[in-house]
Amino acid sequence: MNSEIEKLRQELDKIDNLIISQLNERFKTTHQIGKIKKKYDLEIQQSSRETEIINRIRDKCKNSQFEDAIVRVYRYIMSISKDEQSKL
Ligand SMILES: C=C(O[C@@H]1C=C(C(=O)O)C=C[C@H]1O)C(=O)O
């Protein structure tokens, strides 16, 4: 039993490495967008863009039992990008 879990945990570590690297890229990009918003005095919150992202995620996750979980994660990621943009 322990070795079964250990194998899956190693798999999770690899997946986490990918997520970390992609999250880092995503936050770098939202940071750049934040700098442009500051320069042109634009609103940080862009609700129609967020709806577009959530719709795209739901479409991509149509056959996944984790659709709602993934949408929750994305809402959280977007709220953190906005917090980071507001620090600029
Ligand atoms: C990144 C942006 O800023 C905010 C954060 C978003 C995100 O994390 O995807 C989307 C829309 C905005 O509320 C943007 O305006 O595109």
Care to describe what's here?
With 88 residues, this protein is mainly α. The protein has a single domain, classed as Chorismate mutase (Chorismate Mutase Domain, subunit A), CATH 1.20.59.10. Helices cover 83% and strands 0% of the residues. The chain contains 3 helices and no strands. The N and C termini lie far apart (49 Å). Bound molecules: the ligand C=C(O[C@@H]1C=C(C(=O)O)C=C[C@H]1O)C(=O)O. The ligand C=C(O[C@@H]1C=C(C(=O)O)C=C[C@H]1O)C(=O)O binds at residues 30, 33, 45-46, 49-50, 53, 78, 81-82.
What percent of residues are in strands?
under 5%
Specify Rg, calculated over alpha carbons: 17 Å
Query: Can you name the CATH architecture?
Result: Up-down Bundle
Q: Portion of residues in helices?
A: over 70%
Low-confidence sequence ranges:
none
Quickly give the structural class: mainly alpha
**What is the β-strand count?**
0
Q: How are helices and strands ordered from N to C?
A: HHH
How many domains? The number is 1
Question: Can you tell me the CATH topology?
Answer: Chorismate Mutase Domain, subunit A
Cofactors and ligands present?
A: the ligand C=C(O[C@@H]1C=C(C(=O)O)C=C[C@H]1O)C(=O)O
The N- and C-terminal alpha carbons lie at a distance of 49 Å
- Overall pLDDT confidence: 97
